[in-house]
Q: What sequence folds into this?
């Protein structure tokens, strides 16, 4: 996350949520460099199949301490290739 090129957003929260509820959502604070590493866990009763080639998630960046619905945040869908 970066408000301006080259500037990290310290302490901002980054979250991932599976578009089809295949994976548990996760949220972590960004480090001093503005990056966050997130690991998703596959849901037990909604598994992804080995034939699945893409995973679609919603990524949200938000200001910590703000209201989840009315606070400062930005969301976007992201699709990427997977090998399960």
A:
């Amino acid at each position: 996350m970066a408000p301006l090129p080259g500037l990290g957003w310290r302490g901002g929260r980054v979250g991932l949520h599976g578009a089809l509820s295949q994976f548990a959502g996760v949220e972590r604070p960004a480090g001093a460099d503005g990056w966050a590493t997130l690991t998703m866990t596959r849901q037990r009763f909604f598994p992804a199949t080995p034939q699945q080639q893409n995973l679609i998630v919603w990524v949200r960046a938000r200001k910590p301490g703000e209201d989840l619905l009315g606070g400062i945040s930005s969301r976007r869908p992201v699709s990427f290739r997977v090998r399960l």
About this structure: The chain has one domain: 13-81. The two ends are 27 Å apart (CA to CA). The chain is about 0% helix and 35% strand.
